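ok so I'm stuck.
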Amino acid sequence: MGIGRIAVALAAAAALTACGSVIEGAPKGERPDPRKVAGLEISNGPSGPRRGVPAADLSVENGDGGEMDQLAINTLADVQEFWKAEIPNSFPGKTFEPVKRFLSYDSNGKGVQVCKIDTAGIANAFYCALDDSITWDRGELLPMLKDTFGPMAVVTVLAHEMGHAVQYKLGAASNIGPNTPSIVKEQQADCYTGVFMRWIAENKAKHFELSTGEGLNQVLQTMFFIRDSAGTSFEKQGAHGSAFDRVSAFQFGFTLGATRCAEMNEAEINKRITERPFDLSDKDQGQGRGNAQVNQDKYLKALEESLRGAYRSTGAAFPAFDREGVKSCPDAQTTSPASFCPATNQIQLDLPSLVKIGTPPKKGTKGGIGDFAAFAVIASRFSLSIQHATGFRLDDDAAGQRTACLTGAWAGLTNHPDPPAGLRLSPGDLDEAVAELLADNSLIAADVNGKAVPSGFARVEAFGDGFFRGSSYCVKKYSV
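replied:
not stuck anymore, here's the structure
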């Protein structure tokens, strides 16, 4: 995250006023049930292959009959069964023809020729429209995904490839043509993956089951893992999107269905996508490019200025920053590494712990997440102060979602090319927010006492609501 210009442009000021003024009251609105994920009950049961179900029988070229190939075959059988029914339902007049060719290979062994490439040394999975085929690496890619995130990670990746098959078979009905940028194709495939995963979560798949709590979180963590690296331009050939972009597309499909995926075109992507390259101001200051030392005075002051600018029109008395650590509070439990105390209207900061979160991991070391994760944690506690001043409860069922949403709304303001004040979003920052939101005890999506929204999916969804729609939407959707 970098420091933006402090001067306030008229257009930016108008945007701030519009977003800030809506929190002045406590408008009533129908909010989602925090015990559900996109209308489904939150569950933490088993996720992965169903036990006792006969294996699917698909013809696979070059397979070895091992565990990875069978996992892939069962996935592809289920996903084809799903799209065979879903395509005519969502796109009247259209049908889904099964993929013509499935091929397995070991990237550590002899390569095979497919889609005009030699697979030797390539750990990948891909759909090829030239011969209507899906190919996967059983030697390195699939075992790594399974060992790291569980078997549903393999299902996620292969469902994404089938998503490409869906869009090519739909053609114009899915807004896909010969000159469609890769980012549109990849976002659509992520969205179609979400549609299929919803079907599994609804307990309709033959070979797999998916819990909407831990299981769905692991799927989102897989989407995070396969993101583009920070600083990639979405205009680059082969771009898939940042973690925030990929998770957002997945959630659109999971929540809104296949027709929402087909609406994705170049204009929609250009308006929504957050992935962009670094610019000259995104310098490496010893924390990796685009990452700041979160305990430096200039960055804490810039953060405070940014937050004050976001909420200036509310008329609320702004909280003071106490940098001496987290202390006891008479009317709320303390939360680490940042805590809001309503009685004193203070945000207490544990700077050493915030520095740990704000230090991105390096190869061979655990590290934290990145500077924006730490700044967003502080911003979430700041939003609690504003909620308190404007009449919202800080410990009701909606508080965690509302806090995540308002933090996302603040993040959206910092995403302007010329932000109104304080901090400016850098490439990779939103991915850091996703990483924190998917952590077990996310503070960005927690109430004043640190009680986090139980579903990682719901946390990211609330943050995205704020980022894309602003704070007015937050208080309407997440008010009691």
